[in-house]
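Q: How do we represent a protein-ligand complex in a form that can be generated token by token?
A: Start from the inputs.
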Amino acid sequence: MHILDSLVIGAGQAGLSTSFHLRRLGLDHVVLDANPRAGGAWQHRWDSLTMADVHGVADLPDAPAPGRSHDRANEVVPSWFADYESDHGLPVIRPVDVHRVEDDDGLLRVTAGVRHWLTRTVVNATGTWTRPFVPTYPGIEVFTGEQWHTADYPGPSHLAGKRVLVVGGGASAVQFLGELAPIADTVWVTRREPVWRTDDFTPEIGRAAVAMVEDRVRRGLPPRSVVSVTGLVLREQEREAERLGAYRRRRPMFSRIEPDGVRWQDGSCEAVDVILWATGFRPAISHLAPLHLRSEYGGIRLDGTTAVADARVQLVGYGPSASTIGANRAGRRAAVAVSTFLESDGLTATG
Ligand SMILES: Cc1cc2nc3c(=O)[nH]c(=O)nc-3n(C[C@H](O)[C@H](O)[C@H](O)COP(=O)(O)OP(=O)(O)OC[C@H]3O[C@@H](n4cnc5c(N)ncnc54)[C@H](O)[C@@H]3O)c2cc1C
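Then emit the structure tokens for the protein with flavin-adenine dinucleotide bound:
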């Protein structure tokens, strides 16, 4: 079987950036992507998310990102990625859903269904979208209304006129309240008091947030999202919801879920039609389990993008690089780390 220098899993921003740099370094690789078409997680974002709503999509290496517009993000970004893959001749194979990466006599065997690849290194770029997180609350299984997660948010028109409980203290919850409050009856619950940012988002604030997540990952702790530590902002499109009091009507978490609503900590009940879980995502890394990369603290300890437990494995779009700008930079760093690893072992297929 042909032995690759590297194999990238995932063709989102992180995987494409990595592939660009591996190619530039002359490394023999393929990119395996579970999606049927280009676009990474962006192709699955909800229809009402426009390029004016996103916080900003960073450039890919050698390709400026599409600008702000009222066009749908789930169309604009995938079409940009598709052009990028073909313009740069990136070796993406799809749909291939990798379910296992394991050691095979010093090499790495990557398995997807009945297909296998052998490679010297792996760059994991699988993002988080395929692992939506919903916390467990007593009674969740008896609720008779609708439950949605950010990953399958049906859009505002489906929820118009309903009483919607939005759970979560992140940017997605703020956006959902922004578009739902004018057309639905909303209640917002968060575990912690939301931290609002009223000052400008300076590069220093961004760097400090990334450094904080980087430190967690270096210590092997589960990463927190970069966005979660930069604080929340209200933008022009959320002002109407703010005026309607959507962000003031916030309550601490309920104690349990009832068939027709939730029970608050003080014992009182509130009826709701819908629970919208804007409770985030976890890294999609279960296929790496056979490599035993997790530290005793539950996260994967990284040195830069390299897994400390196995230098053949890089993780990009994970922890501090889980943003479009971070993913981009991590792609370059991972490709260089792969090249250095192969050179140190005298292993490059191409040189
Ligand atoms: C709602 C939302 C809005 C966001 N908005 C912004 C924003 O405005 N600006 C910003 O910078 N960041 C934003 N982010 C974060 C940002 O989207 C990601 O960090 C960034 O796009 C990096 O993507 P990625 O390449 O790591 O992952 P993804 O885009 O998720 O790509 C991962 C790819 O890997 C594939 N994959 C997963 N598992 C497997 C497997 N086992 N085998 C094969 N393939 C697999 C997936 O199918 C997918 O194609 C947002 C995130 C969310 C959830």
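The pocket of flavin-adenine dinucleotide is lined by residues 9-15, 32-35, 40-41, 45, 54-58, 96-98, 125-127, 129-130, 150, 172, 284, 287, 317, 322-325, 327 (CB under 6 Å). The first strand starts at residue 3 and ends at 9.
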